[in-house]
Amino acid sequence: MIKSFIPLIGLIFTLYACNNNANKVSESNTGHNNDHASHDHDHDHDHDHEHEHGDDHSDEIVFTSEQAEAAGLQTQIVSPGTFHEVVKTSGQIQSSQGDEVTIVATGNGTLTFSNAAIAEGKSIAAGESIVTISAKNLQEGDPIAKIKIEYETAERELKRAESLIADKIISDKDFQLARQRYENAQTVYNAQAANVTSSGLRVTSPIAGFLKNRLVNQGEYVTIGQPIAVVSQNRKLQLKAEVSERYFNNLKGLSTAHFKTAYDTVTYKLNNLNGKLLSYGKATNSSSFYIPVIFEFDNKGGIIPGAYTEVYLLSTPLQNVIAIPLTAVTEEQGLHFVYLRIGKEAYKKQEVQLGQSDGDRVHVKNGLESGNEIVTRGAYQVKIAANASIIPEGHTH
């Protein structure tokens, strides 16, 4: 009986020992896992902390005071104001009526410009010689020489007639005919005498201005009355814009315009040039779907008649909207950005949604608030500084 219990006791002891060891192994593994989890938690916490810290400063652009001074940086506080609806179109600069004159040939002959280097745009003084016309080598002879001979002959015949009429050798009728021939010859001669030179007949400009057009070439044969050149005083100019008929309703509130020429980066404002609206068409014609709009303004220099322009017609005013200078806006891949000043040497890139532009300012629909300080000059340099501070992906310190 005792012998039969011994194996049973041994089996119970063995099972107990195995179970105890298994519990120890389980506790050991559980502790290891807990330590590893604790390690992962600490690592994640540290990583999150660093990420949050980076977010606070990742979009900050450092642009020092020295850089700002070198770039001529300027800023502006954003505030709502008045902007106008804009109709953008094309146009042309024209001379005003009465501000130009066409110079014509006063004789037949070969033309020589007084200044071989004369070109369109050259300043012309009143009474200044433009060309000389010579007929010395022509088969029909020099008309100026003929005029002089006719005048001198008529003068001699009149003096002879005066002596003969005193002695009643000729009739009063013959005397009157002699005097009439003299007066006619004198009129023609005096009209040319002041401009007769050894080289030929001078043709001068009656007004001061600039040479707008040369209508003939050096050495060309001209006849009396043929146009030679156009001289413009250029004091008043006109801006003629062609507007699509779909914008006809916008023209009712038309007030002024801005324009830019192809040869200049300046945006001219008619309000600064004493400009005024002369007229605009009330309908289109059969040959065009465009409505003409004409302004007149003072030419203060730098504007060439005949030049084609971009025109921004300003119509109905919009109140309490944000508009900023175009110089404040940069573009990247079709998106538009400005740079906000958020500290003495700290800036931030801000995306904006733009509306219409008048050539000088642009309406900002979204992205800016009243009180924001934006860079209006030097934005491109701030953009370069921002790009230079970007750390390539995968690069670490």
Can you summarize this structure?
The chain has 397 residues and is an alpha+beta fold. It has five helices and 24 strands. It has three domains: 60-79 and 322-388, Beta Barrel (conserved putative lor/sdh protein from methanococcus maripaludis s2 fold), CATH 2.40.420.20; 87-96 and 235-321, Efflux pump adaptor protein, beta barrel domain (Elongation Factor Tu (Ef-tu), domain 3); 100-232, OB fold (Dihydrolipoamide Acetyltransferase, E2P) (Beta Barrel).
Can you put this structure into words, describing what you see?
By secondary structure, the chain is of the alpha+beta class. It has helices at 2-57, 65-71, 143-166, 172-193, 379-388; strands at 60-62, 74-77, 81-95, 100-104, 109-113, 123-124, 129-134, 196-197, 200-204, 209-214, 221-222, 227-232, 236-244, 256-261, 268-269, 276-280, 290-298, 308-321, 323-325, 330-332, 335-341, 346-357, 361-366, 373-377. A hairpin with a 2-residue loop joins strand 20 (330-332) and strand 21 (335-341). Helix 3 (143-166) packs antiparallel against helix 4 (172-193).
Percent helix, as a range, is 25-40%
DSSP strand content: 35-45%
> Mind telling me the C-alpha Rg?
45 Å
Which architecture of the largest domain per CATH?
Answer: Beta Barrel
Write down how many β-strands occur, each being a DSSP E stretch of 2 or more residues.
Answer: 24
CATH topology call of the largest domain: OB fold (Dihydrolipoamide Acetyltransferase, E2P)
Summarize the main sheet.
Answer: 7 strands, antiparallel
What strand order characterises the main sheet? 15-14-18-3-13-17-16
Topology as H/E string? HEHEEEEEEHHEEEEEEEEEEEEEEEEEH
Number of individual domains:
3
Number of helices: 5
In CATH, what is the homologous superfamily of the largest domain? RNA polymerase II/Efflux pump adaptor protein, barrel-sandwich hybrid domain
- Roughly what is the average pLDDT, rounded to an integer? 80
Q: What is the rounded distance between the termini?
A: 80 Å
Low-pLDDT ranges: 1-9, 11-55, 391-397
